[in-house]
Amino acid sequence: MSPLKSLESFFDRILGIFVALACIILALVMLSVCLEVFLRYFLNRPQVWVVELSEYALLYITFLGAAWVLKGDGHVTVDLFTSLMAPKSRAVCSLASFIVCFMVSIILAVYGIRVTWDHFSQGIYNPTILEMPKGAILFVIPLGGITLLIQSIRGALKSLRSIKEGQ
């Protein structure tokens, strides 16, 4: 196996771990919301942490799963026009969307790293019930941005190959 193929395989395993973690977080959010509904309406004992933790979890789910969804071409697309195009034109549109995704993911990664590092180094906490360190909350943004960046490069290269082959 070539070094590039083994690196791609390693990255695919990382994406698999991230999406499995996102699924676990989603299941825990579902269970905690169900528990909150039961405790609030049947025992009159609401828990103050459920809503805040659910907000953080949704951020983590989004950024842990974004690159995996991009890999499977699962993001929302409007295929009304692209379905009428020739395969080569469709590959050009796909390349353009991967380039846009690449630019957005650079912004997410670069600014996410800056902001997360600033919050970690300054010890900033979220002034809420849980008082979570903001760096720990924001950490997933550059992580997701980097994985999205890598996956958008992979997708762009695949589109370039399709354009060259005329498919």
Descriptive account of the structure:
The protein has 167 residues and is an all-alpha fold. It has one domain (3-165). 80% of the residues lie in helices and 0% in strands. It contains six helices and no strands. Helix 1 (3-42) runs antiparallel to helix 2 (49-71), helix 2 runs parallel beside helix 6 and helix 4 runs antiparallel to helix 6 (140-165). The longest helix is centred in the first third of the chain and has 40 residues, at 3-42. The radius of gyration is 20 Å and the shape is elongated. It starts with a helix and ends with a helix.
Main sheet summary: none
Taking pLDDT < 50 over at least 5 consecutive residues as the criterion, the unreliable ranges are none
Count of all domains: 1
Strand content: under 5%
| Helicity, as a percent range | over 70%
- Structural class category: mainly alpha
Distance between the amino and carboxyl termini? 26 Å
| Total DSSP helices | 6
Number of strands: 0
Shape: elongated
- Helix-strand sequence: HHHHHH
Mean pLDDT: 91
Kindly provide the radius of gyration, computed on alpha-carbon positions and rounded to a whole number of angstroms.
20 Å
